[in-house]
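Take a look at the protein record below and flag anything odd:
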Amino acid sequence: MVKSVKILWISAVVVNFASIVFFFLLTNHWLTQGLIMDIISTVVLQMFGIPAAALIVASLCILKYNWKPSGWVGYTGALIIIAALLWIAGYMFFFAWLAI
């Protein structure tokens, strides 16, 4: 895999993980009321948090086993996964910012 794509992929995974943590901390009112979330935050976490976690796990497995994309189709697939990671992270950062 090209080094720039690998660095971009790793940074997208880190940003996505940070967005999940940021979302969880900001929608729980800094855990002062236990682990209770409101209904909208729970639905958003289910709709975007579960796919984000699945993409993180899949990305870590792909990066661990040094997957080498074959041609432009493989790199297009990798860029689609990176774009999905960043889009979900952006949405979760935005919603967590609104929940403050």
Remarks:
- The chain has three helices and no strands.
